[in-house]
């Protein structure tokens, strides 16, 4: 049976994940300028003048059924309302028949790093994937040389499956080795508990 992934809003402790839409453009441009994230050579973060095209790309992939993109907003702790836009994330490389998803194409404004927003986003996305969509596994991929990302994925409790050598071509033309991680459904309760602990005690 094919699982249908439809746009959905996910509300956490620190963030709200909203379905991406063109109206998020200006907020996403402000967010990506926070830390000039597009200048990090080992990532694929859109520059301000590329944001409109990146939104269109992600929404086209959503129409094709291979991606479900989100805009990440801070959640006001007092009112619970969605506030400032801080980044983007997605379900990507969707296999609706299994079902299986990869969580990726993620970036957050530099000022949000270490604040608990990233583990909160992952808690929401993993919870929806395992508990609602019924995925037996969720995948993560990153550049072999992106040690910050590799460490962050490992801290989630994901296990490294392997390395795809010369797997893709980076924006500068060089070949990229891709590290593949996954979390299995039977590992989710332990991962969930660890993420909840991190959210209660951010800056770790």
Automatic annotation (TrEMBL):
Pfam families, alphabetized: Acetyltransf_3
This protein's name: N-acetyltransferase
Domain N-acetyltransferase: 15-159
Keyword Transferase set for record: yes
GO molecular function list: acyltransferase activity, transferring groups other than amino-acyl groups
Record keywords: Transferase
């Amino acid at each position: 049976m094919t699982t249908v992934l439809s746009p959905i809003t996910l509300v956490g402790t620190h963030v709200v994940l909203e379905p991406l839409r063109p109206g998020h453009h200006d907020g996403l441009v402000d967010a990506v300028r926070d830390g000039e994230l597009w200048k990090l050579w080992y990532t694929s973060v859109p520059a301000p003048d590329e944001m409109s095209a990146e939104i269109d790309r992600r929404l086209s992939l959503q129409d094709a059924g291979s991606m479900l993109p989100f805009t990440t907003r801070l959640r006001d702790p007092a009112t619970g309302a969605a506030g400032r836009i801080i980044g983007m994330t997605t379900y990507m490389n969707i296999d609706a028949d299994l079902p299986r998803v990869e969580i990726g194409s993620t970036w957050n404004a530099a000022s949000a790093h270490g604040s608990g927003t990233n583990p909160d986003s992952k808690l929401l996305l993993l919870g929806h994937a395992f508990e609602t969509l019924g995925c037996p596994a969720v995948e993560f991929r990153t550049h072999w040389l992106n040690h910050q990302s590799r460490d962050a994925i490992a801290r989630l409790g994901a296990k490294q499956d392997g390395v795809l050598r010369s797997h893709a071509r980076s924006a500068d033309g060089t070949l990229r080795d891709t590290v593949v991680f996954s979390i299995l459904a039977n590992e989710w309760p332990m991962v969930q508990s660890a993420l909840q602990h991190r959210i209660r005690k951010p800056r770790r």
